[in-house]
Amino acid sequence: MSRYFSRKYEKLIPYTPGEQPEEKKYIKLNTNESPFPPSDRAREYANEAAKSLNLYPDPECRELNKKMADTLKVDEDQILMTNGSDEILNFAFMAFCDNDHKAVFPDITYGFYSVFAQLNNVPYEQIPLKDDFTIDINDYIGINKTIFIANPNAPTAIFLKPEEIEKILASNPDNVVVIDEAYVDFGAKSCVPLINKYDNLLVTQTFSKSRSMAGARLGFGVASKEIIKDLNTVKYSTNPYNINKMTMAAGLGTLEDEEYTINNCKRIIENREYTKNELLRLGFELTDSSTNFVFAKHPKIDAKRLYLELKEKEILVRHFDKERISSYNRITIGTHEEMETLVNTLKSILEEKA
To answer: What is the pLDDT of residue 117?
Structure first.
């Protein structure tokens, strides 16, 4: 770092995104993107919006916001659209965490939580998952801290039922509970219906996974009107034009073509079940996935070595060096053809080790 870099960030460890290589063509099963392109309507709307890029986008995101509210059956002032769900998560750390409201989240979860805490100088605690990688809700009952839970969790893929989330919400009435539902559309159940029952609940979601818009950067938060007002205060104090015109238009087109999204999710779930069954036949051990990825390990081959061998064969998966999960790889679910290629490649690798 340069001698000008602020000392307040000297210990900051930035988030490490998944590989996005350009040097060769890989089967990309490492960053949980959708294998399917955006809907035709999303692309048409984005192309039309490009004609007026000389003008600022609507800072209130009114048309998209209204459509999102209609889709979720909530009020328009209960939603805030953001530049990916990462932005709404960062807003939450800024708005609801400080020395009196410390942050807490699992020790194995989305890696950006600890980064946002450090970036915003927020004291935080990481609570260990149980040995089977599930969350013990008793660890969060009445702890009086700002809670962040990815549900389903990443990279473990495990889902916590809304009834369990409710117990956490009810026991922490004076603190915000953030439920990050980036993967909720692949077989889990959303907590959005609970926002009118608990005014301390903030649900975040993204268009990156189920809606095929990872490259466009669009997310949102759903909460009580008061929480959304708080988040808007942060938004308008940082970047009022946080969503560009083409992304906004593509998001609207996506929501107007919800059947396309639903069908893609069904296909991904089918491909996930196929992949799980095939991996089990090959001797892999898996967590119970409610996401568009599986979390897998094999007793006869080191996970990092397997990741490297797959990469040599032009298949990318995600390996994490963190001690508790270093024996696992996270594998995104792609098209059926891509998953067949993965399975056949894994067979070859394992036969070589036999």
So the answer is: 97
| Residues 243-260, mean pLDDT to the nearest whole number | 98
Q: Residue 354: what pLDDT?
A: 65
pLDDT score for 35: 97
Q: Which domains does the chain carry?
A: 15-36+259-353 (3.90.1150.10), 40-256 (3.40.640.10)
Block residue for tokens 């909530």: 74
10 Å CB burial of residue 29 (0-12, 13-18, 19+) is buried
> What pLDDT score was predicted for residue 352?
85
Query: Quick one: CA torsion of 231, 232, 234, 240, rounded to 10 degrees?
Result: 140
Structure tokens at 263: 């069908």
The residue whose two tokens read 């399917």 is 36
Q: Where are the alpha helices (DSSP H) in the chain?
A: 40-49, 62-72, 84-96, 112-119, 162-171, 225-235, 245-255, 258-281, 303-312, 336-353
Quote the pLDDT of residue 19: 86
Q: What are the E-state strand segments in 154-257?
A: 177-180, 201-206, 219-223
